């Protein structure tokens, strides 16, 4: 398997999709597997607790610190073939001064990844500019038997395969989405990066118009706008410059899945089939794959 290795650091600042607060993101070259740091505390992704709410994927440190909505950044990295990097998140300077508190002194303080452009396109472009092909990276996990999560109505299953592949099916009552299926094959590194960059990275997150008011009342989607998301109504969608793909919704689900599987800490060699799944099922599968990984 081919990988990419960062040669320069990456810095981004922006609002969290849910909190609406400004955060800073640093991604730095490393010889270690993907490693997340917040408030001076850092661990490999594979050792952090996972929680999916259906509205994003959270990583939780042993002391209680939580980093929300990690999936787009992680997807950009592993979709580009980068499996070794140090990722650090902190409140933007203005946010820190307003809070008048030390991050290191508040173990339970929540953080959130910058929402970027609601997908992975701009970050992937920068990753590809600031990395080179490499033969070094964590050893892939090749499955010998199926591993699944969910129930008959919503599930994700990883099947033994000779390469990594995703088949994703979504089914929404909203007419603009309906039933969509997308089949994606990806090999990290080399020219195959272009497949992820063209087919998956530009697909934006989306929200149902009927749910926005309730989400914001619950303190969610406060950083969402038509600059970084698609709004889906009963009969039409609102999206800046229109949809990028007729099936942009299912492509974004593949983007999310790749980001959630990054928490395994190593590439997966399997055919992953997801049907009406979400972050909850993605992360349940990742937890079970972690158990398999520890045993081999």
Question: What layout of secondary structure does this protein have?
Answer:
Layout: E1 3-6, E2 10-15, E3 22-29, E4 35-38, E5 41-44, E6 49-52, E7 57-60, E8 66-68, H1 71-79, E9 85-91, H2 93-99, E10 110-112, H3 121-129, E11 131-134, E12 141-142, E13 147-151, E14 154-159, E15 165-171, E16 179-185, H4 193-199, E17 206-208, H5 209-217, E18 230-232, E19 237-238, H6 248-261, E20 268-269, E21 271-275, H7 279-295
The biggest beta sheet, please?
A: 5 strands, mixed
Shape: globular
Mean pLDDT: 90
Structural class: alpha/beta
| Approximate helicity band | 10-25%
* Number of discrete helical segments: 7
* Count of folded domains: 1
Spans where pLDDT lies below 50 across 5 or more residues: 96-108
